[in-house]
Design brief:
Layout lengths: L1 E2 L10 H5 L4 E2 L6 E2 H13 L16 H12 L7 E2 L9 H6 L6 H10 L10
Parallel strand pairs: 1-3, 2-4
Helix pairs in contact: 3-5
């Protein structure tokens, strides 16, 4: 699931989660575009080859993202549990190349919630 600080983009933002009738409780890998897209340029500059799972380290559930969203925006969201199968992507190779890459929770705060702290999100 890609997420961006650009809250006007429904497909890559937390408002997408707020608009869902059912959310998943399973842990998933998330890509914070604001952090990882600049790494793609660095990968090209370093001439790195091979397969990189382009995702932040660690996992997070959509419910956790909404809890974090509430902390930063003090809004309530209705959450209904829905089961789902999930693939686990290993970001170890990317983390080895970029050891300063943030965990998914830290990246959400730094690149999504903090920049939009003063921005009202319309659902």
């Amino acid at each position: 699931m890609p997420i961006s600080s650009d809250q006007s983009t429904q497909e890559t933002s937390s408002p997408r989660l707020l608009g869902m009738r059912k959310l998943l409780t399973s842990q998933t890998r998330v890509t914070i575009l604001d952090e990882l897209l600049p790494l793609s340029i660095e990968i090209a500059k370093r001439n790195l080859i091979g397969i990189y799972n382009f995702t932040n380290p660690d996992v997070v559930s959509p419910n956790e993202i909404l809890e974090m969203y509430r902390e930063y925006n003090e809004e309530q969201a209705k959450v209904i549990v829905a089961p789902r199968s999930n693939n686990d992507l290993d970001a170890a190779k990317l983390k080895t190349e970029f050891p300063k890459m943030l965990s998914i929770q830290e990246s959400l705060i730094k690149f999504v919630f903090e920049p939009n702290k003063k921005t009202e999100v319309k659902v």
